[in-house]
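Re: How this chain folds, sequence and tokenised backbone to follow

Filed under: protein folding, tokenised backbone structure, sequence and structure records.

Contents: The amino acid chain and a row of whole-number tokens, matched residue for residue.

Body of memo: The sequence and its backbone structure tokens, given next.
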Amino acid sequence: MKNKTKPEAILLDMDGVLLDTEALNGEAWNRTAKYFGKDLSKNDLINLLGRPRIDCAHEVLDLINKPIDILDLLKIHQPFQRNLIKNCLAIKDAENLVKFIQEKLIP
């Protein structure tokens, strides 16, 4: 027998759940590192997936291995990130999921 109880609410994370941002985030970090003379490897980029921005910044600083202030790194990163995110696409069926949640009146 199926449980037909409606959930009280649904919490969705946009980054990687509703929006396909993984490659764009990786590209922004790669461009940031290149600005400081470091090419990030595929493994470096994989290690950044799903992590908070500040954690990624610390990791990229370690990889660059130069005396750079984290705020300076983030100032370089932010324009790359903002420019790339403009090309962000929805995850397949994300729109259908949101519509379904709305139709069921689930907050």
About this structure: Residues 70-85 form the longest helix (16 residues).
